[in-house]
Amino acid sequence: VQLQASGGGLVQAGGSLTLSCAASGKIPGVNRRGWYRQAPGKERELVALIMNNGITNYADSVRGRFTISRDIGKNTVYLHMNSLKSEDTAVYFCNYKTNYERLYWGQGTLVTVSS
Fold it and tell me: I want to staple 55 with a disulfide (CB 3.0 to 4.6 A). Which of 34, 51, 75, 93 is the partner?
């Protein structure tokens, strides 16, 4: 099973983008879906998580601007990004975690915010 991320691109500061991450098949025991990002020269960092019960968690830097959601029927997780800033420029990776502590990663999608 693979995760396919899409939706990245070039956007002006203050603009919006929505990222999508679809699993190619069913992944047993998924209990958490999330987005991470890695800016040039920096380590990968958590952006947002959503649990199976709908509880969400956000990095302080994006709280109030980004919203994570999921469509379990479509096996897809989304990241709605508003009020984008230049510091949001990064490669964004989706991630699924299972009850068995197995991690699945998408291939990454580049978001570039121009100031």
Answer: 51
Sign of CA dihedral 60, 22, 96, 50: positive
Q: What is the pLDDT of residues 71-107, one digit of tens each?
A: 988 999 999 999 999 999 999 999 999 999 999 999 9
Hey, what are 41's tokens?
């020269």
User: DSSP code of 41?
Assistant: T
- Residue (of 60, 66, 64, 63) closest to 78 by Cα position: 66
Total residue count of the chain as it appears in this document: 115
User: How wide is the angle at C-alpha 17 spanned by C-alphas 82 and 7, nearest 5°?
Assistant: 155
pLDDT at 72: 86
Residue 50 contacts by C-beta under 8 Å, 6 or more apart in sequence? 32, 33, 34, 56, 68, 69, 70, 77
DSSP 83: S
